[in-house]
Specification:
Layout (H helix, E strand, L loop, with lengths): L1 H7 L5 H22 L12 E4 L3 E2 H5 L4 E3 L6 E3 L7 H14 L5 E3 L1 H14 L6 H11 L4 E11 L2 E2 L4 E3 L2 E10 L5 E10 L10 H6 L7 H12 L7
Parallel strand pairs: 1-5, 1-6, 2-6
Antiparallel strand pairs: 3-4, 6-9, 7-8, 9-10
Helix pairs in contact: 4-8, 5-6
Length: about 230
């Protein structure tokens, strides 16, 4: 009887309060999803893209430095980037994008010329993002593809025996002009491993025929995979 009295003494409104709390949490979660929509929404209006050359962060900042991207907030740990890697990556990316016939591409050479012109015309200091947006507007671009390489090490050894495998780290960011909104991010970060080191990549191991590939092959394959979800018309 005492137990029954204790149970009956529980505040009658407690269940209602608990239900209301659950409802508030549920509504809050729904609102959060609405506030952060899928970035793919409305991408079909981006037809003219300014492609920036790959920026070699190793040459700019040195080995084992860290760099925080002002656009994405990512932090890169910079390691060795082989000579000429930035040119190779820029050429390969342009070739891969040119296969998408619906896109109009503004080549990296035009971007460099426009940036030089802007810097000579204005004395005001601009952030990297502001400079990019002004460059894109001047060239009539709908979006800018910003590219960086922070690691590009060649394989040491042959295709069948390698003392040190190829290693690549690069980032590609598609930004809306003129607001600088990030609408796509392609990331490649891989050090080739043996099958025993990573059983989850058996498909990649078979595709590479069990061989140690070059840094160029590692990078180009990574770019191809990243571009599979690149915005297209």
């Amino acid at each position: 009887m005492k137990l029954n009295r204790k149970l009956s003494s529980k505040p009658p409104g407690l269940c209602a309060v608990l239900c209301l709390a659950v409802l508030v949490v549920f509504i809050g979660a729904c609102q959060n999803r609405l506030l952060y929509p899928d970035r793919a929404t409305g991408l079909d209006r981006f037809e003219k893209i300014l492609v920036m050359p790959f920026d070699d962060l190793y040459r700019k900042l040195g080995d084992h430095a860290s760099y925080r991207c002002p656009v994405s907030g990512k932090v890169y740990l910079i390691e060795e980037v082989a000579e000429g890697a930035d040119a190779f990556l820029t050429d390969y990316l342009m070739s891969a994008l040119m296969e998408r016939k619906a896109l109009v591409l503004i080549p990296p050479g035009q971007a460099q010329g426009a940036i030089s012109s802007l810097l000579s015309e204005t004395r005001a200091e601009m952030s990297e993002l502001e400079l990019l947006m002004k460059t894109g507007q001047q060239l009539g671009a709908d979006a800018i593809l910003l590219n960086r390489v922070y690691r590009f090490r060649h394989r040491v050894g042959t295709r069948y025996t390698a003392e040190s495998p190829a290693s690549v780290g690069l980032d590609m960011l598609l930004l809306s002009v003129p607001d600088g909104r990030l609408i796509w991010n392609g990331h490649v970060d891989e050090i080739q491993q043996t099958l025993s080191e990573n059983l989850f990549k058996i498909g990649t191991f078979i595709k590479r025929k069990g061989q140690w590939i070059s840094a160029e092959e590692l990078a180009s394959g990574g770019i191809d995979d990243a571009l599979k979800d690149f915005p297209s018309l």
